[in-house]
Amino acid sequence: MKNSFLQFMLLVSSLVFAQKTIENPKTGFSAVPYLSIHKIEMRDSTTIVSFEITQYPGFKFTIPKQTYIKDVAKEEKIFVKSAEGVSMKSGNFVPESGVLNYKLIFGKLDYSVKKMEYGEANDGGNWFIYDIALQDIPNPSGINKELEGNWFNADNGNWEMGFYDNTIIYKSKVWQYEKVALKNGNGSVSLTNKDQKVTLFVKKGKEGSYFIGETPKSLIAYTNTSQNEIEKSNNTDIVYEMPILQSDSATYSGYIKNYSAKAAVKTIAIHIDDIITGAQNTFVAKINDNGFFSIKLPLYYPHEVWVRSSIFNGSVYLEPGKTLFHLVGDREALFMGESAKLNVELLKAQTVRRTDYEDIMRNILDMNPETYKSYCKNVVSKKLETLEALRNTKTIGAKVYQITKLEIEYNAIAQMMNFQRNKETAFRLKNKIPNNQREISLKNDSLTADYYDFLTDPLVNNPLAVISTHSYQNVINRLQYLDLVHLNSVSVTVFEIADELQKRGYTLTHEEKQLLDDMKQMEILKNDPEHKAFDAKYAKIRLAFVTKHQKILKEIAKVESFSFESLEKHLLKNNIPISKEEQEFLKTSRKLAKTPTAKKLEKYKNLGLLIDKFYKKHNDITNFLYSEMRTNFRNKKLAELFNVQEGFASDIMKSQDLCNNVVAQLTPLSDGDLIRVQQSIQTPFIADYIEKCNKQTIAKIEANKKQTGYVLNETPKTEGDELFSGIMKKYKGKVVYVDFWATWCGPCRSGIERIKTLKEEMKDKDIVFVYLTNQSSPEKTYSAMIPEIKGEHYRLSTDDWNYLAGKFNVSGIPHYVLVGKNGEVINPKLGQHSNEELKKILEKQM
């Protein structure tokens, strides 16, 4: 009987231990805050993990075959076998509810394991959750379990503290536990932060609430109810008013919950759009060992900024002169500081703020311009109804209502202006046409000024619109390049440049005076009746003929001067067809070449080289005149077509045109040009800001002269396959990251800026960063810019660039190539990666 009972107990015991279930396990650092683990079932042969993902409807994700779990104490990975609720063969989408539950089934994990890790072992994998507790592990500080987590002021809903395993968040700082003296949830917790100390007195309340304060007589009621669920926040009627632009800064700081060195992330990048220069400036915040980061950022108007890292990829809204503290890595974003409530309420309005691009892509191909415009207006109407409901229920305050209303309205305008671009994108998606295929069979709709009747002067010239996150900036961008107001072909003659130079007191050299005289004589000769008649009849044919045979002309130019006669000989010799129209043109051209006027013009056949030299020498003046012509044309057309007068918007567009040279191209304005520009700007802040940018550029150029860590190399005197190997020969034994770029390329510059911290981190490794550009990067700008780009530099000839562009199929820049230690190309099209991903790729080759 005893033996039977013992056998029964052993059977029960074996059944109990044959399955172990952990509900809502405690986790350490998570790189996927929107992904949570609800349950883990440990069985004899499998481990089942139940997940919940909370994201916007339509969010796409995949489950790689290399998804794994593992004992944190071991290296062996247990890979996923199957899934329930999601597909492992194709992409998955979050439904309309914004929540998706699913299970992943893995191999067996031993019951004795205390902590496990979840992650993706595939290249580029970035979903990781560390230190997932499989056993009940008490808080190492000694605080009771009920006190763990985030606590919100019961009166106003503000998040004011968070008790975690090794740290406490309090008053926008990260504190360590010094002494915990709690009994049944009552007592005190002493904290330390560097040389600061504070003691929090704790008293347990009813229904899970606590009273906490810095003295026993100043206790405040706290609840662990989510900050986003408390609707009684004291919303005020304060809104943004003019003047909206002011020179200031904002402090953005935060804590990465349960931060772990395993994440291999040491920095967070903050990208701030500068509407006056049109640039996006990148700032890098260093993450301390305890997960805290803080950075003071220049900010001259309230707006959304982008925060980028593998830990958090999103945005926050900053205000000049104010602070924001951000909890990163938790299930929901939490905030402290002066801009906290603003950010909490913007999250509550997140659904109405989001643009449903998927719906646009599904429907736009069936729309004409007018029906698309009606569609956009209908979307605005519905969104504004939802926004009014949020305001009436006091879910959001006056500021968030103001920001979101402007955002909805200006985003709709940007989308209406984007009709043709959106339609092309939808067409490419539907027909699976890659972006590098230029020619597509989609017919463009002809949009007249009547289509743009939504553009009005009060709307376009509204300075307060800058608070509308990025919507107003998008409208400005579309307006700048709107076909109806954009001067596509700008021609500044040598004579116009010479006039401008003389107005500025410049004395022309003898060579320049001779060039002007020769050009005048040449113009007189070209006005000969016979030549004018030839140009009138054959100008288009000549252009088409030259364009058609560009490659052949380049080959001919290597051995002799260009002439239609030499081109014709080459075509005949190689049996390349010449049309009747082209034959007539060539015959008439030969006849014209024998006239007395043509023989006189022969004297000026090399004038083109001198003209190019003149343009290059006076590139700054040329660019300035280009900018003036574009601005004047645009302003005139905006007034004529839409009755949009010169004002705030034209000031921004003009400043962006100018600052592209001043800031992006490191080409400062002269004192005279600066005064001239400032006098043409109506907004005083913008005029002063341009001057500030100009001074910063001058200082930067001077500072760059003292920079080290860059090398300007001579391109090897070789051609064909030997060219690239000749460049790589210098770096044999090292991994080489090759960057095709140009000084004028914004994405190139952003990419270079982004990896600055990675280069510094890997400066002692066997890795070389090689930068290749071509003649399109102006020499003066290039020389001023490269000292701040650590690495090996080559400014290639047009032919050398064309060869390498062909070799690596460079259809656009930036373009990256990875070369191994033996000099062999590992990846001819590396693509863009985060610093963390790129570091893994580079280290793998070492």
Layout of SSEs?
Blueprint: H1 2-17, E1 20-23, E2 35-42, E3 46-54, E4 60-61, E5 67-71, E6 78-84, E7 92-93, E8 99-107, E9 115-120, E10 129-133, E11 149-153, E12 159-163, E13 167-170, E14 173-183, E15 186-193, E16 196-204, E17 210-213, E18 220-223, E19 249-256, E20 267-274, E21 279-286, E22 292-298, E23 303-308, E24 313-318, E25 323-328, E26 334-336, H2 340-348, H3 350-353, H4 357-363, H5 369-392, H6 398-417, H7 419-431, H8 457-460, H9 471-480, H10 494-503, H11 510-526, H12 529-548, H13 550-557, H14 564-573, H15 580-593, H16 596-601, H17 607-617, H18 619-642, H19 648-664, H20 671-680, H21 684-704, E27 710-712, H22 721-728, E28 735-740, H23 746-754, H24 756-761, E29 767-773, H25 779-785, E30 791-795, H26 798-807, E31 815-819, E32 825-827, H27 835-845
Parallel strand pairs: 19-25, 27-30, 28-29, 29-30
Antiparallel strand pairs: 1-2, 2-3, 3-8, 4-7, 5-6, 5-9, 6-8, 9-10, 11-12, 11-18, 12-13, 13-14, 14-15, 15-16, 16-17, 17-18, 19-22, 20-21, 20-23, 23-24, 25-26, 28-31, 31-32
Helix pairs in contact: 5-6, 6-9, 11-17, 12-15, 18-19, 19-21, 20-21
